[in-house]
# Entry
Amino acid sequence: MSASRNALGAPGAFRFLCAPGRCPGAVLALPFLLLTACGPALPPADLTIVNGAEPESLDPALALSIEDLRVTMPLFEGLTRNDPVTARPVPGLAERWDISADGRTYTFSLRTNAVWSTGEPITAADVAWSWRRALDPKTGAGYASQLFFIENAEAFNAGTLTDPGQLGFRATGPHVFEVRLRRPTPFFLDLCAFQTLAVVPRRAIERWGEQWIRAHPLPVSGPYQLDFWRLNDRVRLRKNPRYWDAAHTALEVVDLLTIANPATAFNLYETGGADVIWDRSLVPAELLDLLRARPDCHRFDFLAVYFIRCNVTRPPLDDPRVRRALSLAIDRRRIVERITRGGELPASGLVPPGTANHQPVDAARFDLDAARRLLAEAGHPGGVGLRPLRYLYWTAGGGTGQEHAKIAVELQAMWEQGLGLRVELDNREKRVFIAAQRRLDYDLSQSSWVGDYNDPNTFLDLFLSHNGNNRTGWADPAYDALLDRANAEPDLARRAALLAEAEQMLVAGAAVVAPVYFASGFHFFRPGRVAGIHTNLLDLHPINAIRKLTPPR
# Structure
């Protein structure tokens, strides 16, 4: 996306700063960080957003969390981008495209006025290199599977195909990019807007390796440039005047604050130190009932589910009867009525209502008698002979983190009182939690997912055998084949039925996951001060569409 060809400075010139009084010695010791001094007070930004936890990576191929993606999206653009109102894909670096009659070949025409922030043209070769990098197993992209709909992409990522020339995409001209899919993929244009498929600066990456994001100037193709990243404080973005659509970027300077504590975040917002809070996790949970009536509280439905992962590699959770018993013992309505209280719906499956092309399933319900029978069939009546199960969850000092703790305690009581199980609660800081989940260091784990695009596949393909976000140890060729068959089906009604069958297999049959509730979204911003934020099913809000209003005198 961003390749500075002529004036690439050393990574040491990138302004990677520390918040006053919070400079870690380990950072100061790094030789390539030349500007690590704790800086003076900053001039105010045009817009200040509470973003949550510290980003882990600003490399689009490695960005995993929403905190990461909210920073990378304004910096790096893909062939398409998300409409700020509907979140549907609209032209980005590509101004138009043609789709073959069989739906398998896409030919993109890149904008001739699309340039890096350093002035060099963005070419189709840049797109091809970026996609190859995302698929390269050495990169370790967590969302590489988003590209597996392309011919030979999965084999290349697995290392069984080593010739990049056989990948199903190529530059056929300086501004023409051709993609060949394995089969018609109705949501492919949505994928082209996802950050894993964003275009990144080849020369900077080849020159500076893993430290490329610290290059100065950092070449970007999005509406904003990276001004600096100050640890434990903020990421500051500055308008990119060379962006192809810069005329419609309203704000010059935007700060994304690193604040994970809800009390701190909300106090800052209330006193005028922040303009926007994106998530309910950044508001004290005990205040939510009162805040919902305020005009600056914006509640909406979106494609998100809260669920529990089961580690199927460890007894007794290697037995699907035990997993099904645990799911059946969850009183979901009790959780949404007593704990979350934000209009959430008890989950009957993994795919949220309102998802396009979705056929609802009744795969998760509360039935304690059935749960007890299954546990007895598995040889453990009343929990006899079962070791304690460890439930992994994260907290961050309040807000949704506090809700995670309350839900964990409620689940513990349901499983212990209803089934006679012993459950130990394992509370971790979020980064440690994610690392533990990835290495399967848990029995049961709190989980959630927000759709990357509006289709059931964005939830169901998480549990394909090859998906890096599976994190359960479960692999079933029959499930893989069923989902593959569904996505190859051109008839929408038959496709929806096949996807529902896959969801039923995952949730009710294998019981790899136990859905708990379909989430509600909350944003906080004052309508008289901020405009351009639109609630949508994917909870995506391009920063370049946001405007700051001048309050009347």
Q: What stands out?
A: The two ends are 42 Å apart (CA to CA). The first strand starts at residue 16 and ends at 18. The chain has two domains: 11-239, 299-520. The chain has a mean pLDDT of 91.
